Amino acid sequence: MTKEVLTVKNITKYYPGVVALNDVSITFKQGEVHALLGENGAGKSTLIKIIAGAVQPNAGEIIIADKSYTQLTPHLSKALGIEVIYQEFNLLESLTVAENICFGENHKALVDFKAMELKAKSILDMMGVQLDLKKQVKYLAPSQKQLVEIAKSVSKNAQILIMDEPSAPLSVSEISKMFDIVRRLKEKGVTIIYISHRMEEIFEIADRVTVLRDGRFIKTENIKDTSIKSLVSLMVGRELNGSYPVRNHPIGEEVLRCENLSGNGDIDINFTLHKGEILGLSGLVGAGRTELVRLIYGADPKEGGIIYRNGKEVDIRLPKDALANGIGLIPEDRKLQGCFLEKSVSWNSSIANLNAITKNFVVNLKKEKKQAEEYCELLNIKTPSIEQMTKNLSGGNQQKVVLAKTLAANTNVIIFDEPTRGIDVGAKQEIYNLMNSLVEEGRSILMITSDMPELLGMSDRILVLHSGRLAGELSRKEFSQERILELSSGLS
């Protein structure tokens, strides 16, 4: 019988007006990959923070190695062999890759940088990853930061490793490498608690799965004894029909055209976007997808090329120029670039379109409230109040706040950079339906996604980038995962 290494028993945690966890009990076994599923707000993040000692429960106990604790501290949790890779990065941005991987291991007056870099290199080599050990983490792409997070946890010889959406910023090949790492750790007896909204991953890597809903334990099952349909039904308390809603409206005239657009590592990019169209943008990590949309949005300066809106050349040097031309961006990193976490839902919903709610530099609070309430209803933002601070919302609801901010600015060309990263199955369906309604209203969407089914299911056309250049364009009848991967890898 496999040894039980961690049990959370009757755990309850409440905040003012919200019960985050209600009498939750789960047992985790040695050397298993135990998936934790649930919609945003189900209590997954609160539970892992309690196990990590970052949050204290109001009731219940945590049993590790046959010893019971009513609460843990971060220091005690680590001492007990628990490491967490959070959904949001927990790296020291000003330190190098090697320093982050080995942080906290040196107890001498002088740091042996050579030894530290050798250890970091050995871990990355074991992972099959190549990174510049001397590069500051702040200059890395999100996918590279995630690999540093994984390497950092591997270096600590964790006995219980919690991975919260670890694959979200990774490419297909990087996910495969990560799964290899997980399997190696499992063989060494490490227990992996794996949180992901990508159902196909759960069935590839997990041994058992536990479902939470609305802060309550619903069920634990062996992965071989269940199905995606069954798990989705347990998660949302209802059955969801097809993942990708059908669109039947006609695609209209050109609304955006880029000619020989260069800069930020991209070279001579040419494409058009049409009214009522979802144009998918694919490519491996580092291909230049986010770099391209930042040029279009004015977040980074272009070095050459022309941008046309509705057939007319426009000069976009700053994001305010893009917004003035009806172009909005929902960035990949919602917490750092998408919204103001310390401000309310109402404040965030209004900040990009103050002209609509101000007069003589004074905000009309009634208009602000009405606008925020309309978008909360439209996007089904789950919040106790429109005055709730955005940082207190779940990841999926924070993403909806970013979308509300963008829509409130009267944008009709909307750039989604990883629109469903860190969002649960039910919320994904809402985002997909919303994207459909936006294009049916005549808006246009440029969508970056690393989720292949999402790319194939939501796009009308697909552009594929490789090493900063446009590698190909596919019409819907040409869609295939194999063809996209060929173009992405520079094989065509």
Largest sheet: 6 strands, mixed
Tell me the structural class: alpha/beta
The CATH superfamily of the largest domain is P-loop containing nucleotide triphosphate hydrolases
Tally of DSSP β-strands: 22
* Uncertain stretches: none
Strand order of the largest sheet: 6-7-8-3-9-10
When the domains are counted, the total is 2
**Radius of gyration (Å):** 23 Å
Average pLDDT works out at: 86
| Helix run count | 17
Question: Which percent range fits the helix content?
Answer: 25-40%
Briefly note the CATH topology name of the largest domain: Rossmann fold
The first-level CATH class name of the largest domain: Alpha Beta
Label the CATH architecture of the largest domain.
3-Layer(aba) Sandwich
> What is the percentage of strand-forming residues?
25-35%
Q: How far apart are the termini?
A: 51 Å
User: What's the overall geometry?
Assistant: globular
Describe the structure.
The chain has two domains: 4-236, 3-Layer(aba) Sandwich (Rossmann fold); 254-488, P-loop containing nucleotide triphosphate hydrolases (Rossmann fold, 3-Layer(aba) Sandwich), CATH 3.40.50.300. Helices cover 34% and strands 26% of the residues. It is built from 17 helices and 22 strands. The protein has helices spanning 44-52, 74-79, 97-101, 113-127, 142-155, 172-187, 199-205, 228-236, 289-297, 319-324, 334-338, 345-350, 365-379, 395-408, 425-440, 452-458, 481-488; strands spanning 4-15, 18-29, 33-37, 59-64, 67-69, 82-85, 160-164, 191-195, 208-213, 216-222, 254-263, 266-274, 278-282, 304-309, 312-314, 327-330, 358-359, 362-363, 413-417, 444-448, 461-466, 469-475. It has a six-stranded mixed sheet with strand order 6-7-8-3-9-10, sandwiched between helices. A six-stranded mixed sheet has the order 16-19-20-13-21-22, with helices on both faces. Helix 13 packs across helix 14. The longest helix has 16 residues, at 172-187. The relative contact order is 0.11.
